[in-house]
Design brief:
Length: 179
């Protein structure tokens, strides 16, 4: 990133290769929309070029880029909320792969679908913190820096979000079982 900041924009390709999939996963788990996620990833890299002068290099680059991604998602979320959120249930995550038999795949697919529905029932803040910690694998300290709060506050938020996610999942599971 320091090379990109210095004007070597050809080095941006390496950053794109490294962060494209994690950013796509982050956005997809927040939006459940593949096309919007791809657009948001591209917009992150447009912003990197535009705001490269703000990168100091004293912290982790992943924290800086996800901070930018968070801000971009906040803008997107406000816009979608203003326009009216449209959920596309037919969108599937192209990064899932399963080589098991059809029955196992179907069960895993149903569980994944229930989990995605349960995630969508969470507030944007709770969904975001779970995506950062569980799907993106960010450390609590990095999330704390990103959210500008203490590490213990992050732990509490994750605990509460997981508790609500579990309740949502169990509720959805009961709805599926009932005829």
């Amino acid at each position: 990133m320091l090379k990109v900041k210095a004007g070597q924009l050809d080095q941006l390709g390496l950053l794109f290769e490294r962060y494209n999939r994690p950013l796509y996963g982050f956005f997809y788990r927040l939006t459940s929309d593949g096309n919007a996620s791809e657009d948001l990833v591209q917009n992150v890299f447009v912003r990197i070029i535009k705001y490269r002068h703000t990168y100091k290099g004293d912290g982790k680059f992943s924290t800086w880029i996800f901070h930018m991604a968070r801000n971009l998602f906040a803008d997107y979320y406000k816009k979608e909320k203003r326009l009216g959120y449209r959920e596309d249930v037919s969108v599937t995550d192209k990064y899932y792969a399963d080589n098991n038999n059809a029955e196992t795949f179907k069960i895993a697919s149903e569980e994944r679908h229930l989990l995605e529905k349960a995630m969508r029932r969470l507030s944007a803040e709770k969904r975001e913190i779970l995506v950062l910690s569980k799907y993106q694998g960010m450390k609590y300290s990095d999330i704390a820096e990103l959210l500008d709060c203490s590490e213990s506050a992050v732990k509490v938020r994750i605990f509460r979000a997981l508790k609500e996610l579990k309740a949502n999942y169990e509720k959805l599971e009961c709805e599926v079982v009932k005829p």
